[in-house]
Predict the structure.
Amino acid sequence: MKILITGGAGFIGSHLAERHLDLGDEVYIIDDLSTGSIANIQHLKIHPQFTYHIDSVTNTHLMAELVDLCDVIYHLAAAVGVRLIMDSPVRTIETNIRCTEIVLELAETKRKRVLITSTSEVYGKREQVPFREDDDMVWGPTNKSRWSYACSKAIDEFLAIAYWKERKVPTVIARLFNTVGPRQIGQYGMVIPNFVTQALTGADITVFGDGSQSRCFTHVNDAVNALVGIAAHPEANGEVYNVGGTHEVTILELAERIKQMTGSHSPIVFIPYSTAYEAGFEDMVRRVPDITKVNKLIGYEPTVSLQAGLESIIEDQRARLRKRGVLVRV
Ligand code: UDP
């Protein structure tokens, strides 16, 4: 099969590309390197079945060629990460909506199958967990930039479902819950790479708020298992699937665990949300997926424990920091 991955040089996209190459597929990626990096695909560049384009999804001529060529499109290109969203709300809203429109329009012309990656962020401030795909979403007001991410991804979902319902374009949506693993960087706010880098370099481990907020982290290998299974399933059209881990951990427990696993002497410090982000910032208190639907479809279960995931991330960050000549604790 021929696979197109938008955002293929990103953290998740590069792992997905690798998996499809292992499955014997031809993989085409397009990435403008806004948050992805060549380093993520360096090892794939020599693979005879791998083709990469450093370009934007908004280059519709190139995208038309690629969509025409490929059997399945994974649309991962998006503005991601709370830090990026707070700093660049225009870019977030425009990138997320415009790129998805382009992908779906082209998929319709060429009648190609599309998997759109969405996010657990769409559930917003909802307090009852676990979150089910058909639960109501609860967002804050439009003057709080954070919610533009949830809203822009929800528009993507509405659009993908509409393309299936109205125009019979085979689309499916995966809502990813805090995907983590090697190659993820902390630059855009993601907590685990931030904590690991802080612990390894002796910097303060910065817990935002009081650390009682919790998340269910999903190892990228598990996320990729789910994406490949969902994209291939003939009955998934027009449906939304949660893809997540089920082990809930508070952010303070996470900081303590990373400190202990790295043998770090870094102090754990508490930073008010107003300092970390902006005055009035609203966090999600808990984020727990109900994975019954994806389990029924493809038998998905998380397989990588938080402990094993953290080990793989610590090892990856150590290697990266050493390469940059940064002093790393052993
Ligand atoms: N967080 C933190 N310190 C950091 C980065 C994030 O305490 O250096 C917190 C953040 O406020 C949130 C949680 O960790 O409660 C997960 O943050 P992330 O940005 O990774 O994902 P999301 O907020 O999208 O779940």
